[in-house]
Amino acid sequence: MDTIKIPKHIAIMMDGNGRWAKKRFMPRTFGHRQGSKTLENICKDTYDLGVEYLTVYAFSTENWSRPKDEVEGLMNLLKEYLNKIVKMSINNNMQVKIIGNVKKLDNEFQSLINNLEKATANCTGLKFQLALNYGGKDEIIRTTKKIALECLNNKIDVSIINEDLFASHLDTTDIPEPDLFIRTGGEKRLSNFLLWEMAYTELYFTDVLWPDFKKDDLGKAIYDFSKRDRRYGNVIE
Ligand code: FPP
């Protein structure tokens, strides 16, 4: 029997919601709403398959430039979702962390995020990272500023700055780098997602639009990953 290597950490760019909605003559927000349902299923599926970490891109620093009604729709959906998944995460033993420039989000977001992270802090199942107001370049700049401040305050000396120290100041501190990146919706770019963290990540692109992405599609991506020659990943029979 073939041995399948399961990636320990999968990062997903959930692209194609707008086109999915357009095909149905519906507003883009309808696609995002359907996309959030797909995400709930995929969280369960990734864990069932043995993946330990899942990181998804929910709102980028660039998404603010979308039409005002779409940004408002997404913000409302995200707030609804952060509230809704508290119970679901606890029931599924899922630990949730938000990564990104969260300090720039409004007070309602701050309290929803605090509440969700605290409520799930002791969950020992899937470690789920939701990137909100996230940009890879922005994360690198915020990290650089954190380290510069520590130097200015004489907490650390410039000479000790190395890759490990830098990584430990990123939003993703304590989270292993993704083994596999999946982007749905046909585009073949990283689009500013986890730029530092994905230096060695295997990339997988599919034309499937995110709302249509199912466990089978996830399985195909993992199978494709498994065939590649890598040094990382859990091995199951
Ligand atoms: C890209 O689709 C997706 C996003 C801008 C954000 C991802 C959002 C979701 C999956 C839904 C909300 C998520 C949560 C966690 C509630 P697109 O609009 O770029 O699609 P297009 O490429 O077809 O235009």
From TrEMBL:
Binds 2 magnesium ions per subunit. Gene3D superfamilies: Decaprenyl diphosphate synthase-like (3.40.1180.10). Substrate binds at residues 16-20, 28, 32, 60-62, 64, 66, 183, 189-191. One of its GO terms (biological process) is polyprenol biosynthetic process. The keyword Transferase applies. Its cofactor is Mg(2+). The keyword Protease does not apply. CDD domains: Cis_IPPS (cd00475). Mg(2+) binds at D15, E202. It comes from the Bacteria. GO terms for molecular function: ditrans,polycis-polyprenyl diphosphate synthase [(2E,6E)-farnesyl diphosphate specific] activity; magnesium ion binding. It holds the Pfam family Prenyltransf. Keywords: Magnesium, Metal-binding, Transferase. Catalyzes the condensation of isopentenyl diphosphate (IPP) with allylic pyrophosphates generating different type of terpenoids. Homodimer. Belongs to the UPP synthase family. This is Isoprenyl transferase. The lineage of its organism: Bacteria, Bacillati, Bacillota, Clostridia, Eubacteriales.
